[in-house]
Amino acid sequence: MAQKKETPSRIAENKKASFNYFFEEKYEAGVVLEGWEVKALREGKVQLTDGYVVIKDGEMFMIGLQINPLRTTSTHVRADATRTKKLLLHKEEIKRLVGKVEQKGYTLVPLNLHWKNGRVKCDIALAKGKAEHDKRDTIKDREGKREVERAMKQRNR
To answer: Where is this region: Disordered (predicted)?
Structure first.
């Protein structure tokens, strides 16, 4: 019996990250969550834009990811919206990232949260911050693409 390949579906995306950083390497990490957090993710009650990743004692943690609890969350569960979440990666990958993050200018940024085989995964990137002129170039390129699309749309009418 052939198994159906499930395409990852997006839960949340950090759109600011590509504007503020150049991405060097990308990794997919598992996320340790509580039950109420998974239910809130299914409802889309998440904000990823302020999140960042730190490495402490050989383990990776995501800080700033905000998962707002549902109103129907059980009363015996104390829901903390900004709880630090642990990320799961192989030891070799974490060691490689520790060496690179210690270099000047590199940081770990969460790119998106998605479902993969019924589990929540987070794409993280080893990133280097953009200078102000790089951000201006990004804006200029984006506006140029919009103008070309408008011209093509006008021409096709």
So the answer is: 133-157
105 in the Ramachandran plot: left (φ > 0), alpha (ψ -120 to 50) or beta?
A: left
Q: What share of the chain is helix, strand, coil (3-state, %, to 5)?
A: 30, 35, 30
User: What is the pLDDT of the chain when averaged over all its residues?
Assistant: 81
123-157 per-position pLDDT tens digit: 898 888 777 777 788 888 888 888 888 888 888 87
Average the pLDDT over 64-83 and give the result: 73
Q: Let me know if domain 9-130 sits in CATH 3.30.930.10.
A: no
Among 149, 144, 118, smallest CA distance to 30 is for: 118
3-class SS of residue 97? helix
Residues 6+ away with beta carbon under 8 Å from 77:
34, 35, 36
Chain centre to alpha carbon of residue 58: 20
Helices (H) and strands (E) in the chain, counts: 4, 9
